[in-house]
Amino acid sequence: MPAKRFHYSGIIHVHSTYSDGQKSIPEIAAIANELKADFLLMSDHNTLQPKLDGLEGWYDNVLVGIGSELNDKDDKNHYLAFNIDRPVNHRVPAADYVCQVRNQGGFGIIAHPDESRTHIEAYPPYPWTLWNSDCYDGIEIWNQMSEWMEGLTHFNKFWRAMHPRRSIVSPKKETLARWDEGNMKRKIAGVGGVDAHGHIHRMLGMFSVRIFRYKVSFRTIRTHILTSQKLPKEDYKKALQMVFGAIREAHCFVSHSYLGNASAFRFWAENDSDRAEMGGTLVLKNEANVFVENPVKAETRLIFNGHEVGRKEGDGIKFRITEPGIYRVEIRKNGKAWIFSNHIRIKNAD
Ligand SMILES: [Zn+2]
Ligand SMILES: [Zn+2]
After folding, report:
1. Is pLDDT of 183 > 70?
2. pTM above threshold 0.90
3. Domains of the chain
4. CB atoms within 10 A of CB 177
């Protein structure tokens, strides 16, 4: 049986009028409420002003947390910094601001790490270059906007504009590989971001539809957290610490909500006496298994140290574990990438 947990579905990486987004934070929060999100993490470019202006808190049923998306002077190394109280000086090498975030007691997520946009020159990529840093805490394994832009060509742009959610197919293989590799050394949380701005403009020349209104983006990539207690409505600061803690500790998973509500997904490991959940560690003794509960029957792939080692179809699935290492699962529905768990570590008894 999975442990009793509270589940919250969140939207991460959103821009408002404090930088290049199209709506105010209260307006964006209202949209998130309408779409039944539980939390919303804002990250305007190189500013913490909305937090300093007191805009964090509960907006009806949505908890709004405010961080900042930092970038360096070449507009690379975009970094989502959360749980910080003071603006971070980003006019320094990226390695410095990544550590500044940690020194403040905050945590950070590498945004769209392997971005490459080769088809349309007007939209250059903003990749991450600083893989040797020890100071980052998470990686955006799936970025909705980045994937949409990357797949864009002069030939398919109209189709992609008309079918923005169907254009989102899968996280990048190289990003998943880096994430697995990093996790073999230390815990690095995997999260999903929407990178919502309200719409993209000038994208299609004369064809001026609004693509990716917040309402559309918010029905794509979600990051789901699991907590042992309910988020308190009367204390937003405590509630935010719980959300940040769950992300930082990788008690979370990522879904593409267009393919279905992933809230009921669970993934855990058990031996005869103990249990570990995503972000946790289990000792390999006697028999150990990992269990998956899918919201509906779906294809489940077990990934061990970065390689697929098992594949089963169903809603309740069990895989026997015989080797220490890091395990995660990927769920596909009708052949399409749907849910990505964080890792569980299995280690030998000392
Ligand atoms: Zn960015
Ligand atoms: Zn962004």
Report:
1. yes
2. yes
3. 6-259 (3.20.20.140), 266-348 (2.60.40.10)
4. 13
